[in-house]
Each structure stands twice: as C-alpha cells, then as structure tokens.
Amino acid sequence: MSIARISWISGPVLRARAQGPFRLREAVRVGERGLLGEVIRMQGDEIVAQVYEDTTGLHPGVEVTGTGSLLGITLGPALLGRIFDGLLRPLAGASTHHVEPGVRAEVPLEFDFTPRLRPGESILGGAVFGEAVNQSGIRQVCLIPPDAAGEVATIQAAGRYADDLPVCTLRAADGTHRDIAMSHFWPVREPRPVAQWLPSDEPLITGQRVLDSLFPVALGGKAAIPGGFGTGKTMLLEVLAKSCSADVIVYVGCGERGNEMAGVLDEFPRLADPRTGHPLMERTVIIANTSNMPVAAREASIYSAVTVAEYFRDQGLHVALLADSTSRWAEALREVSVRFGELPSEGGYPPYLSSRIAEFYERAAKAKTLAGSTGSVTVLASISPPSGDFSEPVTSHTKRQVRSFWALDVKRAQSRFYPAINPLQSYSEDSLDLGGWWGKIYADLVPDGDAPTNEWSELRRRFLTLLDEQARLERMARIIGKDALPARQQLILFCAELVNEGFLRQSAFSETDRYCGPQRQARIMRSITRFIAAAEVALAKGVSCEAITAMQIVRRLERMGEDIAEDDVQAFADLSLRMESEFADLVALTGAKREA
Ligand SMILES: Nc1ncnc2c1ncn2[C@@H]1O[C@H](COP(=O)(O)OP(=O)(O)OP(=O)(O)O)[C@@H](O)[C@H]1O
Ligand SMILES: [Mg+2]
Description:
Helix content: 25-40%
Bound molecules: adenosine-5'-triphosphate, magnesium ion
Mean pLDDT: 92
Number of helices: 16
Oligomer: single chain
Low-confidence stretches: 93-99
Shape: globular
CATH topology of the largest domain: Rossmann fold
Number of strands: 26
Radius of gyration: 28 Å
CATH class of the largest domain: Alpha Beta
C-alpha cells in the first residue's frame, strides 16, 4: 500500500509527498482516524487530495495511505429504504445528520437469497444471478458486477446471507476465480456500462399538468428546475418524489440547509406510496449532504447518487434521480478548486465546471441493460441561481445539457401561484418525441368529433401561443389601459387567465389535485379548449366579452382540478353539456335583445 505525507493542508484539500505509486481518483485514508479522501491531482511525486471529513487537527507530516481502489461505493440490496451521506455511509437515524469520521463500511445486513443459476452455467457481466428479499419483503435481483464474467463454479443454496459475503464463485476463461456477493463495489465517477442506449418515446409522468402536458420529460430524460430563493424548488422535487411514475426514487439533498433536509428526512419515512399504500421509503434511497456537512463530500454526493440510480436501472427499473441543489454542488467544486489555487473562470468557478455538469447529466438515459431488460435514469435537478439570475454560469451550462427546463418564477411564487413554473421561460425538447404517446391517451378518451389527429401537440401549441399572447397584450394594456383593448383581445386575456387558473395552477395540498393523471390532464385541456372555441364563436355572434367572463361555467372550469376526481368521466361529460347549454342561452339572449 502506498504512503504519502502531508506537506500542506487548507480546509478539505491537502498536498502530500508520495512514497509510492498513487492513481488519480484513488481513495485514500488520512491520519490515525482514517479519514476518507480522494486523489484529485498528481504532479510529479506530489498528490493533491480532497478529504471527505472534517480535517481539523490534521497537519504536515500526517500519513496518507492509498487504498488501491478508486473512490467508490457498495451497491446491493441494502440500499432501498435507507438514508446515507454523500459517500453512501448510512446515517444513523432520520434526525442524525452526521456520521462518525472515518467510518469505513456499514454493518452488513442479511437477506434471503435465492440462486437463479446452477454450477457450470456461463454468465456475462451485469447478468442476474439471484434474488434477494429484504425485511420488508421487497424482492430485488442480484447482479454480477459489470466487470466480471465466467462459468459458475459454486453458488449457494437458497438461504439467509450477509450481503457482503460471497454467495457465488465465477471461474474466468483464464482459470482465475472471483467471489461474487449480493453487493458489489463500483467507482462513483465511472458510468456503469449498458448493452445499448435506447431512444425514449414515453414520458416520465409527474402528475403535474404544467409539466406533463406542456413541458414533459422523457423516461431517461433530464430536466433542470432553476428558481430563485423560496420559489418552490424543494417542494416541487418532493411532489415529484411522491407521485412521479418511476419505480425507484433516489433523492439527493446536496448542500441544502439542514432544516430543509430535515423536512425530507422526517417526512419521507412516514409517507405512504400512493400506488401501493406501503411506505414510500421502501422504493426510495435518500442521500443527505447538508450545508453543515463537509464540503468535499457534497461534491461526491451527486456522483454517488447517479451511480446508485444506474444500479437500479441495471436491474431493469425506471429510476428518478432528484437532486437539490446542483448550485450547492457547484459551489463545493468551486471551494475545493479555490483552496488549491486553481485559476478561477466565470463566477469564480473552475474552468471545468461545464464539463463536470455535462458528465453528470450524460448519465441520464434509457437503456437496454447488460442483463437484457430495459431501464432508465431520469435526472430532475434544481438550480439555485444567486438573485434568481438565469444567466449565471451554473444555469447557463446546465441549459446546454438538459432537454427540459422548468423555470420557477419569483413573481408567481410571491402571489402564491403554485407550481410557480413560468410557461414563457420553460421549454421541453422531449415534447417533440412524445406526441405519439400522448396521441394514444387522447385517442382513448371519448372521441371528440372536432379533434385534430395530433390533438395533444395541437392543444399544447394553442395553450403556449395563448400564454405568449397574454404577455404581449398585458404589456400593451399597461400602456393604453385594459379597457382600450378590442373585445377580441380582452377575450384572449381572459382565456389565458383561464389556462393559468384552471390548468397550470395545481395545489400540492388538495387531496384530489395533488396528482393529475394523463387522462384527466387531457380532459381538462379539452374542456378549456372547447370553452375557448365556443367563446370565440359567441363573441363573433355579438355576445359581449363581459357576458362571457360572467358565465357560471367559468368558475367550474377553474376548479376542475380540485373538484373532479381522477376517474370521474361523467363529471367531465356533464360539464361539457352544461357549457354548451350556457353558451346557447347566452347567444339566444343576445339575439333576442338585438331584435328587441
Ligand atoms: N406547490 C406548492 N404548493 C403550495 N405551497 C408551496 C408550493 N411550492 C412552494 N410552496 C411554498 O413556498 C415555500 C418555499 O418553497 P421551497 O422551500 O420549496 O422553496 P425553495 O425554492 O426550495 O427555496 P430555497 O431557495 O430556500 O431552497 C414553501 O414553504 C411553501 O410554503
Ligand atoms: Mg430548497
């Protein structure tokens, strides 16, 4: 094992003279307490390492020992349902935000193992060799590490084993043997291999109308949630964790204030899974690295989280990786870089900020796994730009990597319009690939005679155009006064407001509206579109804009999300009939008045 001695130390960064070979990205142990660190630079016989724990008390002369392996984590059946720090060491309990310095490995847990292979069978890396069932009865498959392969020499019979003990031995082509446990090690900065990348033509359903219907993200896609202070980033990520359509949730709280993370840590273990009624934690992994924890570990936590997500993807599952917030992660990168004297680039961040952001988002994808199944990692990550300025480096570099951009708006948040997503600043490139999927949802509804064949894309385009026009007309109205606008333009403003109130606004606290499924989103979108079309006809027939805005049906349309339950198809049909008759009455009344 190689040894080095500290020659200089500042906060989490140290330089040390090496007395043996070290590797870039190698994990090291520092001092008597064996603090975990990682080699981040090599210059001649000097190494630069960042330390993932409080370095108080370390000084020049203290020994640094190489571990021989890259910085990595243990992946296995012991992940689900638990809370870890940035390097995947278990946090003792929901209210404990610290781990003991130098803690090496967690206590092994036991699982009921069932083999799926027999001695003599040949197997490739990443394949399934057995199943493990945990205390809650959750069944997970056990994977051969991607870098192992061979013929099964021995495999244990069904029984209860510790997850770190060998339950299988592989004989490689060269005759060497390798022990395989239910858990295996993987370096966090190395993407796990897959058989094939797959294009994604289905969405990750979030249950939020503004996201799914206007700015969708594909399964295996990537979305950024930038937003100024207090605009609802954490809240939105929590809503997504509770109701998005992923099989497994990996939530990484990265450098957020301890009290915010405490909310997640306290609340999650008590939540019920809306799908099964079981605790949501059973299919969740939480990685917590709050602002009071060592800064370098925050930098690593993002990679730990995405590696965990890839591990579940490799089991043929769809994983949502929720990260809050990537700005705090970038700040950790900046702090470490400044400490060891690198020349800063824009915003004081190191010049490699953009490539690091790219490396992180590149790991989101849908793939055919080495075991032959289909899995995905969808990344949804918040950004906290200082003073809500989206032109700052982290936001602008992220924009180049993501395909969905969900911009939170200070003004909307201040007026308590939630989710505070600004439809004019947000976009989704994935929407281009998801028209087919949504087309089927619309086609399965009660047919609408007038509906275009690509109904979703068309309604989406109309809503976005309307919201765009609203912004333009409001600017004009501020100059000439709203009453000076022609009736048609006043109607546009009114309809846009209906889209805002009836469609975009969605209460996280309403039992009915917390989650809105794709069919209900489609029905609400259709109802509003029908109203707009009927209103335009009525206006053309001489009905005044005031009369339209005073219609009773408007209030009902605004409250569809909260009033009409998920499967209440009849209520939508009734609403539609009522709308028709109200419009018919209004037109008739206008005609009668004219004749009189
Ligand atoms: N969907 C929502 N429904 C109702 N209230 C919300 C919603 N989203 C946010 N809020 C309100 O806004 C407050 C701030 O939200 P949140 O903590 O999520 O913001 P943030 O962007 O994460 O803030 P910070 O910049 O401090 O991290 C919440 O405490 C809550 O009162
Ligand atoms: Mg927050």
